[in-house]
Amino acid sequence: MTRAWILPMLMVLCGSALAAGLIASGSSGAAAALLLVFVLLAGVNSPLIFPRSIGALEAQPRSAADGRPVVFWRPGCKYCMQLRIRLGRSARQVHWVDIWRDPAGAAAVRAANDGNETVPTVIVAGQPHTNPDPAWVRKQLSRSV
pTM for the whole thing? Predict the structure, then answer.
């Protein structure tokens, strides 16, 4: 759990330090704006923007039953964030597995990517797809409904 929050907390701490420096130099308005930007970046990179993650051992049988894709992701990954944002409301239909919280998920990603933990890795009908186009993932969702 704590590993997923490291990057967002570092962003808030760095933003706070930079804002304190700006306040000390007399630029309180710029400090507030900078701190707001860092807090927003921390929120976007936090586990809060992604739907609730489940374990790979739970996601794969669910996917087999309902036909929806499984997306293996990790916090701080800009490609995972891009996929999540471009899926919009459809993202709640996907089974999300955070590989930093689930060792079985990390192992599944390594097995699909020649030993690398490349995310997002999307499993559709048992076939892995590394960093697929979000439009393609949306199309897979429409087929599973």
Answer: 0.70
